[in-house]
Amino acid sequence: MENKLSHIDASGNARMVDVGEKDVVSRTATASGEIIFPKDVLDTLRKQDFLSTKGSIIQTAVIAGIQGVKKTADLIPLCHSLTLSKVKIDISQSKQGLTIVCKVKCMGQTGVEMEALTGVSVAALTVYDMCKALSQEIRITSIQLDEKKGGKKDFTRSK
Predict the structure, then answer these.
(1) Does residue 66 belong to any structural domain of this protein?
(2) C-alpha span between 69 and 62 (Å, rounded)
(3) Is residue 20 part of a domain?
(4) Residue 129 annotated to the active site
(5) What's the pLDDT tens digit per position in 106-150?
(6) Phi then psi for 33, rounded to 5 degrees?
(7) Strand ranges (E), the chain
């Protein structure tokens, strides 16, 4: 099988992939990312149970991430609009900050990898926005696809 860019035609022009002939199947994708805080900022946030004057940092990021998933086709020009059946975003504390995991599911003709990655990204950016007054040293890192199922090729990232 030849590897080639699917969103570039033979002339080198951008194109949206024609998925019209593909079977409608269950498709899932899981992505993750990390937010790393300076130690003093993390200590402050933990003492405040990740609450700010704007509200719950974690719950606001979950809602923003879900909205991001739903807007993926509006943000990434060559993504197809999809009818999503599930979006789940989990944000948990880690040693240096927060870990975000986004799982997306649909019945469709194309996968939901970009939706899962967008969900993690928007949730992370929301946390940054809500915490930036404490420090600009906050880092968003390791945003990656962890798993996808459905379609031609399944993928699971090696640990």
Answers:
(1) yes
(2) 11
(3) no
(4) yes
(5) 999 998 999 999 999 999 999 999 999 999 999 999 999 999 999
(6) -165, 170
(7) 25-36, 51-52, 55-56, 84-93, 97-108, 139-149, 155-156
| Distance separating alpha carbons of residues 22 and 27, to the nearest angstrom | 12
C-alpha to C-alpha distance for 27 and 20, rounded to whole angstroms: 16
The domain of 78 spans 25-150
CATH code of residue 129: 3.30.70.640
What is the tens place of the pLDDT at every residue in 56-87? 999 999 999 999 999 999 999 999 999 999 99
Name the active-site residue from 23, 90, 129, 146: 129
Q: How many domains does the chain fold into?
A: 1
Positive or negative CA dihedral for 73, 123, 103, 116? positive
